[in-house]
Design brief:
The strands form seven sheets. Strands 9, 10, 11, 12, 13, 14 and 15 form a seven-stranded mixed sheet that branches. The protein has a three-stranded antiparallel sheet with strand order 6-17-20. A hairpin with a 4-residue loop joins strand 18 (482-485) and strand 19 (490-493). The protein contains 17 helices and 21 strands. It has helices spanning 24-43, 68-74, 80-95, 100-119, 124-145, 155-165, 175-190, 267-290, 304-312, 323-333, 386-408, 418-431, 438-449, 451-459, 464-476, 494-497, 503-521, and strands at residues 3-5, 11-13, 20-23, 53-56, 62-65, 147-148, 205-211, 219-221, 224-226, 238-247, 295-298, 316-318, 337-338, 350-360, 363-369, 377-383, 411-414, 482-485, 490-493, 500-502, 525-528. It folds into three domains: 21-148 and 413-521, Orthogonal Bundle (GROEL, domain 1), CATH 1.10.560; 153-222 and 374-409, TCP-1-like chaperonin intermediate domain (GROEL, domain 2); 226-373, GroEL, CATH 3.50.7. The radius of gyration is 31 Å and the shape is elongated.
Length: 560
């Protein structure tokens, strides 16, 4: 119960009994500690030498990953301020697809540095103003330091994809090069438009996972692979120079919308009735033959009789394909999906060099490949277990996202913590031109940025203090592209090593982390409503049928 006091000193109840209220510095301190705890969980996952987390949900399902967005999502965080960092990670993933761990870690460090100022009695409003100035300056410096790529050469795009994949499970052996090349080819294939008006939809890159073989067996298929099999054993399992019809209607006799009865008084009428159904189904197959379709993918069912007619006609058919797969098939083959077979024409058909049923890991799948200039493609990945396959899928999502980001905005910065170290040095210089206590906030913002190279050094087994000292010396001397080479264990030029990050990712990390920290710093009052009392409501204690007067249990009452 929370009380307020009038000017006459009379207490007034303003909150429900059981509510909790925390105000002032205590509320701020609790929120900062909760958010910092979330970022602390992710620290050791950052960088190419970052470690994985094993997450076990309430059903006992296990996830092993170092993907920031996946970790914070599966942690099921309850504290409201900590949930804000979960939302930061989700926003980062949705916007640019990479940098989720960095965004959460940086947000946590910004709050830790703000807490130092709060303990020195610096008002939160001053810290917020200082952080805003530091962010604006950092954005300006970051954009000015970026390098523009020429996208005609895919070598640098592959390096960007490899930088994203380097911290993942796929970084071993030749898998890294293979997946980086696949990512670049896939994005280039689904890209639409020209310079200035480029559109890339990652949904047009389908990732199909199958257990078995090794990660090295990943393939890019210029077409679509669907998890379906040929519906009739008499149908061809392989069709070359396929002419593909996509149907959003069943090859079945449609049932009436209302209940109807048919009275049949003789065997001849029954025969005529069945013959009529057969004639309708034969007419559907004849329609497909008339437009020269030799492959049919149906989103709905195919009648057994229709299957037989299709098999006799040498037409390969699959049924009950997912809507998303049908849309991708249309983009890959050039086919138009029709909702009524009567409307089907030759112009609605798509084409592919080969449609074939293959057995992958003891499961039959339909490969539609060799499409001419497809606008949707499939990446088939292999791995030893479901957990490995899931992590490969997450890794591919990140690499596809960073390649897409660079194609949309071909500006890049050095990786390995180089941009953060550069901004930290420059913001320190900028802080001298900022008057008052806001200068302290700008300095703390600069120091917070160094958490990224510091963790990269730490996870690589290096001395963070010594590494940061070397890094600062390089940047103060004007070498703005030097960062932490976690694999080589020293401070080196990131551009020469081919460690490159998209500018869009770095900008989003800065934006997400700063906005989250400012939002938490503005909170000075936490009011938690009272939890509902157990047993209230129908059937609970005191909420039963109400037994005889005087019975404390409120139930029906039992007599001895």
């Amino acid at each position: 119960m929370t009380l307020a006091t009038t000017s006459q000193g009379i207490p007034v109840l303003i909150l429900k009994e059981g509510s909790k209220r925390t105000t002032g510095r205590e509320a701020l301190r609790q929120n900062i500690l909760a958010a910092s705890a979330v970022s602390e969980v992710l620290r050791s996952s950052l960088g190419p030498r970052g470690l994985d987390k094993m997450l076990i949900d309430s059903f006992g399902d296990v996830t092993i990953t170092n993907d920031g967005a996946t970790i914070v999502k599966d942690m099921e965080v309850e504290q409201p301020a900590a949930k804000m960092l979960v939302e930061v990670s989700k926003a980062q993933d949705a916007e640019v697809g990479d940098g989720t761990t960095s965004a959460v870690v940086l947000a946590g460090e910004l709050l830790n540095k703000a807490n130092v100022l709060l303990e020195d009695n610096v008002h939160p409003s001053i810290i917020i103003d200082g952080y805003k100035k530091a962010y604006d300056k950092a954005e300006e410096l970051l954009a000015a330091s970026a390098k523009k790529l020429t996208l005609s050469d895919t070598t640098e795009l592959k390096e960007i994809a490899k930088t994203s994949l380097a911290s993942k499970i796929v970084s071993a052996g030749g898998t890294l090069d293979n997946l980086a090349e696949i990512s670049v080819k896939a994005i280039k294939q689904v890209q639409e438009g020209t310079d200035g008006d480029i559109k890339i939809d990652l949904d047009n890159v389908k990732i199909e996972k199958r257990k078995g073989e090794s990660m090295l067996e990943a393939l890019l298929i210029m077409g679509i692979v669907i998890d379906k099999e040929v519906v009739h054993p008499g149908m061809p399992k392989r069709v070359e120079k396929a002419r593909i019809a996509l149907l959003d209607s069943p090859l079945e006799i449609e049932k009436t919308e209302m209940t109807a009865k048919i009275q049949i008084t003789s065997p001849e009428q029954m025969r005529a009735f069945l013959d009529q159904e057969t004639t309708i189904l034969r007419g559907m197959v004849d329609k497909l033959k008339s437009v020269n379709a030799n492959v049919v993918i149906c989103q709905k069912g195919i009648d057994d009789v229709a299957q037989s007619f299709l098999a006799k006609s040498g037409i390969l058919a699959a049924r009950r394909a997912k809507r998303s797969d049908m849309e991708k098939l249309g983009r890959a083959t050039g086919a138009r999906m029709v909702t009524s077979i009567d409307d089907l024409s030759a112009d609605d058909l798509g084409s592919a060099q080969l449609v074939e049923e293959r057995r992958i890991a003891n499961e039959k799948m339909l490969f539609i490949e060799g499409c001419k200039n497809p606008r949707a493609v499939t990446i088939l990945v292999r791995g030893s277990s479901e957990m490995v396959l899931d992590e490969i899928e997450r890794s591919l999502h990140d690499s596809l996202s960073v390649v897409r980001n660079v194609v949309l905005d071909p500006r890049v910065v050095a990786g390995g913590g180089a941009p953060e170290a550069y901004l930290a040095v420059k913001l320190r210089e900028y802080a001298n031109s900022v008057g008052g206590k806001e200068q302290l906030a700008v300095q703390q913002f600069a120091d917070a940025l160094l958490v990224i190279p510091s963790i990269l050094a730490e996870t690589a087994g290096l001395d963070p203090i010594e590494t940061l000292a070397q890094l600062k010396a390089k940047h103060e001397a004007g070498s703005s592209t030097f960062g932490v080479d976690a694999m080589g264990g020293q401070v080196r030029d990131m551009y020469r090593l081919g460690i490159i990050d998209p500018l869009r990712v770095k900008q989003q990390i800065l934006k997400s982390a700063t906005e989250a920290s400012l939002l938490i710093l503005k909170i000075d009052d936490v009011i938690a409503a009272a939890a509902p009392k157990a047993g209230k409501g129908p059937g609970g204690p005191g909420g039963g049928m109400g037994g005889p007067e005087g019975m404390p249990d409120g139930g029906m009452g039992g007599y001895d």
